[in-house]
Amino acid sequence: MLYGLIIILISSSCSTIQINYHRDRILKKYSDDYKIYLDSSLIELKNYYLDRNNVKSVVRDKSKKAIHIDRDSMIEFLEFKEYFLEIKNDRMVILNGIPVESEKGKNLKVSPKSLMEITVLKNDSINSQLFHRNYKDVIIFRIQE
């Protein structure tokens, strides 16, 4: 009886646990079942790219099925909404090697320090065989995950 009480106390006290910030792991393991909060605001992590060095803590609350991510400083995000409004059918955007549709791109928010590289390929340097259609230009974003 005493051992059962001890086990119940230990298991109930461990409903929250500190975890490391690995965006892909969190998305893969928790995004379906858990709500994800960034500085107390409910977010869809698939739309956010955070600077790892600015993440203060990541806490998994098993009982509430929530992940709480807190940042050291409240740096404003770069929003791609305005940029994707200008994207037309003759341009392609690639994010970390994956083509991004206009609708998904409008929701992206990127921490400025996680943006590592932007490359613009103009029509004369694009191999149309690679993309199976002609694009005016291709914009490639490389972001730290």
**Roughly what fraction of the amino acids lie in strands?**
35-45%
How many separate domains?
A: 2
Counted by DSSP, the helix tally is 5
**Which percent bin holds the helix content?**
10-25%
Spatial order of the strands forming the largest sheet: 1-5-6-2-3
Number of distinct beta strands? 12
What are the salient characteristics of this protein?
5 helices, 12 strands, 145 residues, five-stranded mixed beta sheet, four-stranded mixed beta sheet, alpha/beta
Could you give a quick summary of the protein structure above?
This protein is of the alpha/beta class. It is 23% helix and 35% strand. The protein is elongated.
What do you see in this structure?
It contains 5 helices and 12 strands. The protein is 23% helix and 35% strand. The chain has a 5-stranded mixed beta sheet, with no helix packed on it. Strands 9-8-12-11 form a 4-stranded mixed beta sheet, with no helix packed on it. A 3-stranded mixed beta sheet has the order 4-10-7. The protein is elongated, with a radius of gyration of 20 Å. It is an alpha/beta fold and 145 residues long. The chain has helices at residues 2-13, 23-30, 81-85, 102-105, 128-131, and strands at 16-18, 35-38, 41-43, 48-49, 55-61, 66-71, 78-79, 91-95, 98-99, 109-110, 115-122, 137-143. The protein folds into 2 domains: 15-71, no CATH class; 78-143, no CATH class.
